[in-house]
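Possible regression after last week's pipeline update?

I re-ran a chain I had predicted before the update to compare outputs. Posting the input and the new output here so someone can diff against the archived version. Not blocking, just want to make sure nothing changed silently.
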Amino acid sequence: MANKTRIDTNNRTFQLVFSAVMVALATVLSVIPVVQLPFGGSVTLFSQVPILAVSWILGVPWGLASGLAYGILQILVGGIGNFSYVQGILAYIILVFADYLVPFTFLGFAGLFKRVIRNPYAAASAGTVMVCVIRYISHFISGATIWTEYAPDTAVKAVLAYSASYNATYMVPETVISVVGICAVIALLSKLTSKENSGKKIAEKTAE
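New output (post-update):
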């Protein structure tokens, strides 16, 4: 019985292709929101999971690169129009970095605990919650600085409370969905690995 060729995750071609496909998948999923909030932000169907998967399978550097590419695509796909709602160079910089580049690039850190926490589900969940908290903080900063006009009151406390509650509205469910999604990916990988190992044992016995 011929052995099946195992996918080499260290192969540069595989890494590039896999990352590109995951970034494309994440982008497609991001434009099909489950819940769309009126002033930006949405709950999506596992749109973050492809980037989390890149970080988990290929490592943090590839995750960061994929997250950056994803963030740039988010600007091109739906973020360009937001520039018309803010004014000034500083506001543009905050918009680009706080709403897109920082939150989405940092998704690449999701696999950070893979070699630190023994249980893969716990490791992936911890990494996912961490990057979602970073994303939440980034969006919170944006809401408290360049989107203050949407707050019900101009007082500092009111603006901060509005940004905190508004961004939590979509980031909390997004975090839960992402944790479920990455754990499902790990379960699938574990199942495939188990089948591969079983196939090798059968092949070895047959060869004997």
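Follow-up from reviewer: compared with the archived run. Residues 1-5 have pLDDT under 50 and may be disordered. Marking as no regression found.
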